[in-house]
Amino acid sequence: MAGIGSKLVLIALAVCGAAQAQTPSAEVRKFLKFDQPLIALTHVRVIDGTGAPARDDRTIVLRNGRIEAITDGAAPPPAGAHVVSLEGRSVIPGLVGMHNHLMYTASINLDEDDKIPQPGFLVTELAFSAPRLYLAAGVTTMRTTGSIEPYTDLNIRSKIDKLQMPGPHIDVTGPYLEGEGSSFPQMSSLAAQDHARRTVAFWSGEGATSFKAYMNIKADVLGAAIDEAHKHGRKLTGHLCSVDYRQAAALGIDDLEHGPVFTDSEFVPNRKKDQCPSSAEIAASWEKLEVDSKPVQDLIRELVARKVAITSTLPVFEQFVATRPVLSKQQMAMMSAESLRSHLNARAHAAAAPGRAARLEAALKKEMAFELAFVRAGGLLLAGPDPTGNGGVLPGFGDQREIELLVEAGFTPVEAIRIATANGARYLGQLERIGTIEPGKDADLVVLKGDPTRRIADVENVEIVFKDGLGYDPAKLVSSVKGMVGVR
């Protein structure tokens, strides 16, 4: 694995340099508030992403797409700078979304027996609306963490980097590395090691910069995929089930998605090799475990020792808890009529199941406790919303909710912001240029009205998003895609 981080840094720097050399298209310019080469953001509160306390009344100087300096607010801005006065505002680093998709659960159609009919669970590519919503929410870099249309994702990345369309920088994950028996007909079916190696090698050559294994992959096939990914300087993550967390860690996996309470099958009694137990069996096995118990603490120690990251995706689980808040009016306005109908029906169906909300709430709380314990033990926690599930997690909005839920889990606001920014940059090998607010780094910044260190919900109050020094108007980006989530 030596050199993986440095290789990804070089890829990222090349992409960034190409983006800065481009001239914004007319399509991108429609959403720009600021495009001056020298900008001074004055009298602003700086939450730098390192976990350090906020610093009040600072001036951030941006020059040619980079952060040139951070000075005391009393100091005069540089001569010729375009001055943006930001009293009462906070600036955080651009969010680094680590379980994001350019696809979405468009609708959930159930048979009379509450099962999904053939051909299975289908998702819709959101090539138009998702990049805009991510950027509007402050996501300036994201990993797709599984792709249904990898060529579409690669082409979107190219268009964004050339400033032909608005959106975040994208680490494109190749197509899902899935085994046999998937409920998703849009996924592959890898039954042999050779097939996995050829798939990883091919998509590495096509431009995928990471990979994701899925629930039904067999252990030997997963091991081959991990080995091949590392040969190409790529990292591999997994939403697993047939392979448990300890097995995957021993095979050299880099990251595990969602956290274990909903996905780690190792504690299911009489589990069969290379077979995925039901979600009910996994849930039942974790109901009997406490986070401070020896088996769970041993798992945490092993993951930390093997340097396996965990990606927190609390919003997607929260949306299955019928007693949790429904979507805001603004989020509902983003959705197509069919997507909204489907999501509300799914919530109503969940609410009708006796005791289900209480069980899921308890599981959500346990997952939160696990993630807090993992970090306190020295683990690297990443953040992402996973806009799939029952359709209740929207691109961008979910990234903001993830930060709020991390605070609910027991992290301080500055810790939660660090998880959503610097930690993702570190995992991607890009911390030298993004993830924190420091001189010399790329000008990827989010201007918030309010102070999220005192009221974490202020992460939703995005007024300006700077990406490579260009300042985007979130309100315009959001209004341009009303009613489109689930359609395009």
UniProtKB/TrEMBL annotation:
Keywords: Signal
All copies of domain Amidohydrolase-related, residue ranges: 91-469
Keyword flag Zinc-finger: no
Pfam family for this entry, one: Amidohydro_1
SUPFAM superfamilies (UniProt xref): Composite domain of metallo-dependent hydrolases, Metallo-dependent hydrolases
Domain of life: Bacteria
Keyword Metal-binding among UniProt keywords: no
Signal peptide span: 1-21
UniProt protein name: Amidohydrolase family protein
Organism: Massilia solisilvae
